[in-house]
Design goal:
The chain is α+β, with helices and mostly antiparallel strands and 132 residues long. The protein has two domains: 57 residues, no CATH class; 75 residues. The chain has a two-stranded antiparallel ribbon. Strands 3-6 form a two-stranded antiparallel sheet. A two-stranded antiparallel sheet has the order 4-5. Strand 1 and strand 2 form a beta hairpin. Helix 1 packs antiparallel against helix 2. The longest helix has 32 residues. The protein is elongated, with a radius of gyration of 22 Å. The relative contact order is 0.15. Bound molecules: zinc ion. The site of zinc ion has 9 residues, from loops.
Amino acid sequence: MRDDKVQCQCCGKWMVPRPIFSRGIWSNGWWVGGGRVIGSICPFCLDEDWDGVERVHRGVLFKTLALAISVFLGYVYVFVSLIPVHIINDYFDHQPSIKEYTTWLAAALIFGSIYLGYRTYKWLVNTTKLPL
Ligand SMILES: [Zn+2]
């Protein structure tokens, strides 16, 4: 029994990792079927990263899905952020001086959106804690 215990890298206690199961809940907007072991936690501090290793228990499928969601949201961010640019252009009746300004604004907004999409991907992949 002693051999089953491992030291938690978060709280330093010796413990037997407790498996956690999916419960068939909405998680990050996706329906997850219940009953599957999705990871393990330290019973003392309830931390998933008890082994001190960066979690990569999201499968390739999940990462692909996360990437697809992020790219889609990236497009949404671009679309939404460009609305004021179109409004400004229309309001000033596409005057060249304004157009130059809005082109730079649009470029900045697109870069901002790409960054937001990237952050979304990181957030999706790194959000390992499910609501329990
Ligand atoms: Zn712990």
